[in-house]
Design brief:
The chain has helices at residues 6-22, 37-44, 58-67, and strands at residues 29-30, 50-51, 78-79, 86-88. By secondary structure, the protein is of the alpha+beta class.
């Protein structure tokens, strides 16, 4: 998976491997910080999970980033799928 973001290049393959083991129990939704749609398509096209559309979702992305206190990428936030409540913003290190 190629990306303009070196930390993402290192993290995404590890997350994809983890996801392969737990995909029946969890869902991941990619929220892009890619600089262009072509970058999004090239990077997301290799991912095994869902994503917000690359176009027309900047407002949603910004609201989520503010609500979850996202300050850098990659970030991995856990939300309860039933309630939508915030669980942790430390999932990347875990």
């Amino acid at each position: 998976m190629q990306s303009w973001c070196p930390p993402c290049q290192a993290f995404s393959p590890r997350l994809a491997e983890f996801y392969g083991h737990v995909k029946d129990q969890i869902e991941i939704e990619y929220i892009s910080s890619d600089r262009a749609v072509v970058d999004f398509e090239g990077y997301f096209g290799k991912m095994p999970w869902l994503s917000l559309p690359a176009i027309g979702t900047a407002g949603i992305k910004n609201k989520l980033a503010q609500a979850c206190h996202i300050t850098g990428i990659p970030a991995l936030i856990v939300l309860d799928a039933t309630t939508g409540h915030f669980v942790t913003d430390q999932a990347r290190t875990a």
